[in-house]
Amino acid sequence: MSDDLLPIGRFARLCRLSVKQLRHYDDLGVLTPAWTDPASGYRYYRPAQARDALMAGLLRAMDVPLPVVARVLSGDDGGALKQARDGIESDIARRRRGLRLLDRVLAEGLPAAEVSVVGEPARRVFVARESATPSTIPDATSACVRRLLPRMSPDGLLVGLFPLDMAEEFDVRVAVQAADGEDVLPGGSFAAAVHVGPYEEIPLTVHGVLAWFGDYGHAPAGPVREVYLNDPATTPPEHLETRVMIRVGDDQ
């Protein structure tokens, strides 16, 4: 063993990390000790490793994932830090949307949507789909809309399709009505309510419609449909109108 090696406790104090953290970094291959005593398993580090350890602690304090930290310390960043930054920014945006929803609930109470049962015909549509997680639904929906832009007509309905059961990962779909559409959007009886306000607050109306199913003992059948009734490019967010529709599945 070299005389310049530091035991794990002293190295931890030097780098403002805990012994537990250093052991965890070693187990994952993020920061390997310079030498490990084969008899005791005790770990030792070189003072020159402090720079990497301090960088690891700094990045973890900023919620950078450990696999990204490992890539940075190995010198193979490859844009990983930029991706981590984008992920944190997306999480902040999601939390801000949650705060705005919470503010509305605090101001107005739990949602109570005006629900009516409507008949909806089958429609021919073109469909775009994107994989999403609960936090990336807005981005996935926007990506679908961009792909459908060449197929949109001024009077064609634009419909978002979202699963009732939210898994960790799922498909978001957006359909645009077209006479020569390659797919068919099924018709039937739907519980419907009009949401007025920003798209990010649509979940309040969705919850209101689902509460109607519970109140009247009906079974909902997915997906949740969001029919966008006006153009967000020319309509202020507070005046956007979206028809939320969930199929009544009692007869299935």
UniProtKB/TrEMBL annotation:
Question: Would I find Cell cycle among this entry's keywords?
Answer: no
Ranges in coiled-coil conformation: none
SUPFAM superfamilies membership: Probable bacterial effector-binding domain (SSF55136), Putative DNA-binding domain (SSF46955)
Q: Which InterPro entries match?
A: AraC_E-bd, DNA-bd_dom_put_sf, GyrI-like, MerR-type_HTH_dom, MerR_fam, Reg_factor_effector_dom_sf
Q: Which part of the chain is the HTH merR-type domain?
A: 5-75
Q: Which Pfam families match?
A: GyrI-like (PF06445), MerR (PF00376)
Instruction: Say which domain of life the source belongs to.
Output: Bacteria
Task: Kindly state which keywords UniProt assigns to this record, in alphabetical order.
Answer: DNA-binding
Manganese listed as a keyword: no
Q: Which PANTHER family match?
A: MERR FAMILY REGULATORY PROTEIN (PTHR30204:SF97), REDOX-CYCLING DRUG-SENSING TRANSCRIPTIONAL ACTIVATOR SOXR (PTHR30204)
- Name this protein carries in UniProt: GyrI-like domain-containing protein
Organism of derivation? Actinomadura chokoriensis
**Lineage per the UniProt record:** Bacteria, Bacillati, Actinomycetota, Actinomycetes, Streptosporangiales
